[in-house]
Amino acid sequence: MAAVELLDKAISLLDGLLAGAKPSAAAFAPAPAPAAAEKGAATPAPAPAAKAEKAPKPAKPAPAAPAASTSGASEDETLFARALIKVARVTSCEPLANSEKLLLLQIDIGNGETRQVCAGLQQFIKAEQLRGSLVCVVANLKAAKLAGQASEAMVLAADAGTGDSLIVRTLIPPAGAAPGDVVFLSGGAPTAAPDKVLKSDHWKKIGAGLKVVGGAASFNGRALVTAGGNVTLPSEIPEGAEIH
């Protein structure tokens, strides 16, 4: 029985030791840090941040195409429109004392405007025939001085024949025409914006196309008109005669 008692005492002693034992410090030690990377191993570089995409530049608007002309004017109309040809009334007419060719005219071109004109008509038309008559004049040529007198317009006339048989007659505005009426091409419209001063080169081109066609004044075959009708010539002026 002594042996059994000794064994019980030993077990009791062991239980007591176990019940009063404190946990070891190792039980509360933090977990070891992960092992460092092996020496010489490359550390991956952080990935670069993605670049923000640039907004596309707005496209430049295409230059506008030139506007197409809506006037529909022909080359003849465009050229003729440079000249300002008007109906005028001869208010006075006298031979120029120091000239055998020139007549000195005062003309009314409308809107209360009077101009002086030197016309080379003395040998062809008597002064009294012109007084009070209606004529057609180019009103935007550069003023000139002839035989010492200012000439501020040009009277249009047609001629026919040669030498002693040469005849010259002024253009005849239609019935009902009045000073200031604008002369234009048939089928067109009165000149809206004539040249302020018509260059001689342009007038030469216009003059080259002025002829008598069918008894009427024309430019390159198109009749010269006012709002009242055709500008004509006396019957003694033949077909094809030139107008100056």
Automatic annotation (TrEMBL):
GO terms for molecular function: tRNA binding. Residues 29-50 have a biased composition (Low complexity). InterPro entries: NA-bd_OB-fold (IPR012340), tRNA-bd_dom (IPR002547), Tyrosine-tRNA_ligase_regulator (IPR051270). The keyword Cytoplasm does not apply. Residues 79-184 form the TRNA-binding domain. SUPFAM superfamilies: Nucleic acid-binding proteins. This is tRNA-binding domain-containing protein.
